[in-house]
Specification:
Elements (H helix, E strand, L loop, with lengths): L1 H24 L1 H7 L6 E5 L6 E5 L4 E4 L7 E12 L2 E10 L4 E8 L7 H11 L7 E5 L2 E8 L6 E8 L2 E7 L2 H10 L3
Antiparallel strand pairs: 1-2, 2-3, 4-5, 5-6, 6-10, 7-8, 8-9, 9-10
Length: 184
């Protein structure tokens, strides 16, 4: 009988210690989530330092690159109309300085040609850069490097159903990692 009580006390002690460890480990995540709208959340794995941003509003789940060492800042900009296009955005800044902006444009029709759409957007916003097609994972993307107005930022365009997402940042490696390891 004494052995059962001791084992039960040890299990309870381990559960309490684990709960305290988990609660302290999630403090950073709670801070990041406090200014985000319902439907957009940062999630950290229980083991390791894997971070995800789950965006149910714009229907994607982004896994952050390991090289970021977590998230320093998340800023969500709700859907708005810019030059007759509906777009919602999220800006992600890693603890070690990585930065990615994701702009998701809602299309009225799902059968829009990505290349034509990108060319029109580039003209509408007076963006410069040579457009290249590439396959990353299951996506045919169009990419460019905008030197004139965006200080050499890379822009990657991908289409999923009735959305076109633009991932922009200064590291092609981080953008590729996000495209490959996320759910669009």
């Amino acid at each position: 009988m004494k052995k059962k009580i001791i084992i039960l006390l040890i299990i309870i002690l381990l559960l309490v210690a684990g709960g305290i460890f988990w609660w302290q480990d999630q403090t950073e995540v709670r801070e990041l989530n406090k200014n985000l709208p319902e439907g957009v959340r940062v999630v950290k794995s229980l083991i390791g330092k894997d971070y995800k941003v789950v965006n149910k509003i714009d229907e994607y789940k982004v896994k952050l690159p390991e090289g970021w060492e977590g998230l320093k800042e998340v800023k969500y900009i709700p859907e708005r109309t810019v030059k007759e296009l509906k777009v919602a955005s999220i800006n992600l800044t890693g603890n070690l300085g990585g930065f990615i902006a994701i702009d998701c444009y809602k299309l009225e029709k799902a059968n829009v040609n990505l290349e034509i759409w990108v060319n029109e957007l580039m003209q509408n916003f007076d963006l410069q850069g040579v457009l290249e097609k590439e396959i990353i994972g299951n996506f045919e993307i169009i990419k460019t490097k905008e030197e004139e107005h965006l200080a050499g930022m890379f822009l990657y365009f991908l289409k999923k159903n009735s959305r076109i997402c633009i991932l922009s940042g200064f590291s092609e490696e981080f953008i590729r990692s996000i495209i490959l390891n996320s759910k669009w």
